[in-house]
């Protein structure tokens, strides 16, 4: 009976919503002139996102370069202040926080950056890098701090003997493990993973993904996993959101998305994934998109994908499609989705 109650409690905890993003917009002003600068427009990097992230899950966020994925992650953490919209972390509205209140809640939210070569201070030792968050938030001092640093390094597969060495002495995979250890130091609930394996060798990528999954299971972490490699996203994610030119065009459970994609853009992305069987690969149809991604400074009217969509009709250029639930939590923004 006790085991049943514990299992039910864990299930309820994972089904609870940790983050709510409502009408999130991030616009960057465009200025013209050298001395007397005048604003002449906006770069609409993120333009009206609505989605939730459940506690304990991994939400994958995919799309082409420049579609606004990384900006979305930074805006959720308030590293970039949104132009409009709300970000709720449990019951706290993050966009309203400033100063000490924002600093304190950042202890519960961390980020793993794409480039492990640029995200570590080359003048600090590994011990100093990992212990710095502990000092900033007053979580440990003295011998306790040293023990926690050792434990964190062991958790990410590194030996505590590395604490006196500098970042340039490590490989890319080892540096990313150091970055992960630093993020875990403050015991966060939520981590934005901004293409954390993109800069690594293929042979190392699987090791880092497996490490992140193991840590999630052990510590109950929640991830927003940003990537462009759809095969990796399928492996690590519970649900996947597909982004195009500042908007989410499809959001679904990973199996539903891969087995029955509803948006033409998602279908095109999935058709580009190579299949290891050469006979099947030779027979399947590839969807090749024509033209370039439009500029976020002047996005197309209606559906933003209509300029490249192979099945677009008149209404697609005239009316923006509703982001609607097609059943079972499978959301899509397409006039022709059935």
Write the layout of secondary structure elements.
Elements: H1 2-15, E1 17-32, E2 38-54, E3 58-62, H2 69-76, E4 84-89, E5 92-93, H3 99-105, E6 109-112, H4 126-136, H5 142-155, H6 172-184, E7 190-194, H7 202-219, E8 222-227, H8 230-236, E9 239-244, E10 247-253, H9 254-259, H10 264-271, H11 278-283, H12 314-318, E11 324-325, E12 331-332
Parallel strand pairs: 3-8, 3-9, 6-7, 7-8
Antiparallel strand pairs: 1-2, 1-4, 4-5, 9-10, 10-12, 11-12
Helix pairs in contact: 4-5, 4-6, 5-6
Summarize the structure.
The chain is of the alpha/beta class. The chain has twelve helices and twelve strands. It has helices spanning 2-15, 69-76, 99-105, 126-136, 142-155, 172-184, 202-219, 230-236, 254-259, 264-271, 278-283, 314-318; strands at 17-32, 38-54, 58-62, 84-89, 92-93, 109-112, 190-194, 222-227, 239-244, 247-253, 324-325, 331-332.
Structural commentary:
This protein has 338 residues and is an alpha/beta fold. Helix 4 packs parallel to helix 6 (172-184) and helix 5 (142-155) crosses helix 6. It has twelve helices and twelve strands. Mean pLDDT is 89; it is low at 1-11. The chain has a domain at 263-338. Helices cover 35% and strands 23% of the residues. It has helices at residues 2-15, 69-76, 99-105, 126-136, 142-155, 172-184, 202-219, 230-236, 254-259, 264-271, 278-283, 314-318; strands at 17-32, 38-54, 58-62, 84-89, 92-93, 109-112, 190-194, 222-227, 239-244, 247-253, 324-325, 331-332.
């Amino acid at each position: 009976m006790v085991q049943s109650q514990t299992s039910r409690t864990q299930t309820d905890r994972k089904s609870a919503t940790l983050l709510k993003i409502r009408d999130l917009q991030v616009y960057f002003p465009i200025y013209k002139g050298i001395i007397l600068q005048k604003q002449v427009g906006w770069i609409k990097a993120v333009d009206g996102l609505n989605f939730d992230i459940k506690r304990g899950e991994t939400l994958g966020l995919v799309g082409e370069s420049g579609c606004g994925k990384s900006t979305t992650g930074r805006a959720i953490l308030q590293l970039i202040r949104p132009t409009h919209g709300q970000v709720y972390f449990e019951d706290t509205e993050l966009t309203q926080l400033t100063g000490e209140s924002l600093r304190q809640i950042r202890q519960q939210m961390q980020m793993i950056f794409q480039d492990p070569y640029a995200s570590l201070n080359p003048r600090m030792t590994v011990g100093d890098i990992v212990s710095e968050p502990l000092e900033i938030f007053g979580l440990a001092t003295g011998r306790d701090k040293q023990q926690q640093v050792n434990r964190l390094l062991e958790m990410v597969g590194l030996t505590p003997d590395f604490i006196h060495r500098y970042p340039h002495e490590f490989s890319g995979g080892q540096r990313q493990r150091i970055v992960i250890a630093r993020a875990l130091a403050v015991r966060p609930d939520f981590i934005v993973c901004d293409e954390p394996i993109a800069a690594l060798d293929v042979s190392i990528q699987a090791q880092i993904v497996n490490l992140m999954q193991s840590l999630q299971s052990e510590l109950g972490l929640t991830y927003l996993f940003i990537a462009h490699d759809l095969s990796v996203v399928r492996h690590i994610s519970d649900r996947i959101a597909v982004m195009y030119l500042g908007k989410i065009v499809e959001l679904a459970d990973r199996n539903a998305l891969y087995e029955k994609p509803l948006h033409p853009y998602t279908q095109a992305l999935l058709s580009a994934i190579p299949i290891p069987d050469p006979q099947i690969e030779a027979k399947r149809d590839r969807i090749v998109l024509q033209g370039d991604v439009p500029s976020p400074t002047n996005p197309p009217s209606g559906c933003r994908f209509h300029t490249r969509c192979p099945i677009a009709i008149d209404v697609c250029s005239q009316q923006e499609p509703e982001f609607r639930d097609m059943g079972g939590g499978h959301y899509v923004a397409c006039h022709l989705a059935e």
